[in-house]
Amino acid sequence: MKVRKVPLRKCVGCQESFPKADLLRVVLTPEGHIELDMRGKMNGRGAYLCRQLSCLQTARKRKSLERALKTSIPDDVYEKLEESMPREAGSVAKPDV
What we know:
Layout: E1 8-10, E2 17-19, E3 24-28, E4 34-37, E5 45-49, H1 53-62, H2 64-69, H3 75-84
Antiparallel strand pairs: 1-2, 3-4, 3-5
């Protein structure tokens, strides 16, 4: 049986490579809007982030998301992305054993 190649993408926050399915895609649409692409299929220029809020904050601080999308990103868009990011795994309460 043939082994399928898993596509890897680099997080613009931490600069580590992960399987494409494990990352979130931020898209600059042809209309000029910046959106979070949960399916990874939207048209436009894309950049990938880990599913951690810390990676988004690092990308904001370093302006690496702006470089990847080749556009300036207003603060309100960053706030919208922070709100729509999935919660970190560490914030989930662990069940009692």
